[in-house]
Design brief:
By secondary structure, this protein is of the alpha/beta class. The chain has a domain at 4-89 and 154-215: P-loop containing nucleotide triphosphate hydrolases (Rossmann fold). Helices cover 35% and strands 28% of the residues. The protein has helices at residues 43-50, 74-77, 94-104, 109-123, 138-150, 168-184, 196-202; strands at 4-14, 17-27, 32-36, 58-65, 68-69, 80-83, 156-160, 188-192, 205-210, 213-215. The strands form two sheets. It has a six-stranded mixed β-sheet with strand order 6-7-8-3-9-10, sandwiched between helices. Strand 7 (156-160), helix 6 and strand 8 form a beta-alpha-beta unit. The protein is globular and about 45 Å long. The two termini are 28 Å apart.
């Protein structure tokens, strides 16, 4: 399932400093968007609010399946996945790292095994399945984070600077993974990047953020 996203009048303030100010936008299901803007303009805060990890001070985030607005409950939260540029890795095998999200959701062992193997193949980490996740390179770690996301088959995938802190080879690998997710069209995908060429290459539309809002 893919969902549409509508946000209206989002405000967020930290220690008296406005981070989001009347931020409103609409994202269509099954499309990939790139969100650009300078550091401190509110991109990461917006991601956390849209992923229902954090609440806005004002405004509303709505997820739609067709014409139906979904309730912001646990079921919806489990359909949204946020991958950060420096992901946390468990001190266990790559396989178990990817399997964790399925196990906490009560997915059967046999199905978990199949989905994890598929996710590892998707990101090119099958050969690392038994290696401790803490020993991976930075590029492999980022691909591990994406594997942990795609194994959940999210309706909405947020990728916060997915090619930050990696070398050029890893950057190319991660970009190809994003392109395959985009071509599948099964998820609404939003990425942040500072690279305009990359944004245009990986997305269906580029959104520009400034002073706490997405500019028309």
């Amino acid at each position: 399932m893919s969902l549409g996203l509508e946000a209206s009048g989002l405000y967020k303030t930290y220690n008296g400093k406005p981070v989001l100010a009347d931020c409103s936008f609409t994202l269509q299901e099954g499309r990939t968007y790139a969100l650009m803007g300078p550091n401190g303009c509110g991109k990461s805060t917006l991601f956390r609010i849209c992923a229902l990890i954090e609440e806005s001070d004002q405004g509303e985030v709505r997820y739609l399946s067709g014409d139906s607005v979904l309730q912001p409950d646990v079921s919806l939260r489990r359909m949204l996945t946020l991958v950060l540029p420096r992901i946390g890795v468990f001190n266990t095998s790559v396989f178990r790292n990817v399997a964790y999200g399925l196990r906490v959701r009560g997915v059967a062992r046999a199905e978990t095994a199949v989905r994890v193997e598929k996710a590892l193949e998707f990101v090119g980490l099958t050969h690392k399945r038994d290696q401790n996740g803490l020993t991976l390179s930075s590029g492999e770690t980022q691909r591990l984070g994406i594997a942990r996301a795609v194994v959940l088959e999210p309706a909405v995938l947020f990728l916060d600077e997915p090619t930050a802190f990696v070398d050029e080879k890893s950057k190319a690998q991660i970009e190809e993974i994003i392109q395959r997710i985009r071509r599948d069209g099964n998820s609404l995908v939003v990425i942040t990047t500072h690279n305009r060429v990359q944004a245009e290459r990986l997305s269906d539309a580029v959104l520009q953020m400034s002073e706490g809002k997405i500019m028309a």
